[in-house]
Amino acid sequence: MFVMGTNRWEIDIPKDMLVKQALNFADEVKSKGIAELREFYLAHDQKLLWCTWETDNLQGLEAAFAEMNKQSGLISELNQVEDMYPE
User: Fold this and answer.
1) Comparing C-alpha atoms, which of 28, 26, 35, 25 is closest to residue 60?
2) What pLDDT, in 10s, does the model give residues 17-62?
3) Which end of the chain is less congested by CB atoms within 10 angstroms, N or C?
4) CB of 75 within 8 A of CB of 9?
5) Other beta carbons less than 10 A from residue 29's beta carbon
6) In angstroms, rounded to a whole number, what is the distance separating the alpha carbons of residues 49 and 47?
7) Of all helices (H) and strands (E), which one includes residue 39?
8) 15-31 and 58-72 are packed helices; what angle lies between their axes, rounded to 10 degrees?
9) How many helices (DSSP H) and strands (DSSP E) are in the chain?
10) First and final CA of the chain: distance in angstroms?
């Protein structure tokens, strides 16, 4: 299944640090077999980040995001989305 993550934050976070943390999180989630990051979009000036994941473990991904939010102060929402690419 594909999952869209929408992330926002209220404090100022330097762009380079945010990108590094996001990519480290993606590597960690992948190494644990929870999900694989497919796409990543950042609107830093609007304090928004979107990411698309492929997973068969939605509960694991939700738990990983909850832990990340607790540590980072991000506010995230995950929603299952449909794959619309032609086969």
Assistant:
1) 35
2) 999 999 999 999 999 999 999 999 999 999 999 999 999 999 999 9
3) C
4) yes
5) 21
6) 7
7) strand 35-43
8) 150
9) 2, 4
10) 15
Residue with tokens 């989630």: 29
Specify whether the CB–CB gap between 80 and 58 falls below 8 A.
yes
CB 5 within 8 A of CB 74: no
Question: Tokens standing for 40?
Answer: 């990543």
Could you say which DSSP state residue 87 is in?
Answer: -
Distance CA 48, CA 53 (A): 17
Q: What values do phi and psi take at 12, rounded to 5?
A: -75, 125
